[in-house]
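User: Run a structure prediction on this.
Assistant: Running it now.
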Amino acid sequence: MILSIDRFEGDCAVCVDDQKNRVEIPRCQLPAGVREGDCLRSLPEGGYALDREAARQRREEILRLSRQLFRRRDPKPQDAEPSPKEEKQP
């Protein structure tokens, strides 16, 4: 199972699994240096390992989706007159 660290609350990391279930993990059980947005893979022998590749893929997907979401859909023609809000006051 892969968990994504959503945030830290006190001595716990609040994580989310692929089914959007919330899982709290004590910091003492986490690998050193983990941070919000990192992905953890649960190990068969217990504990967790940092999964840098899963985190990288998720960050790339989030970036791609945000670019798609915030892409300017109605570009303003370059030769159009400025609106009154855009005109500078002397």
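The chain is about 20% helix and 30% strand.
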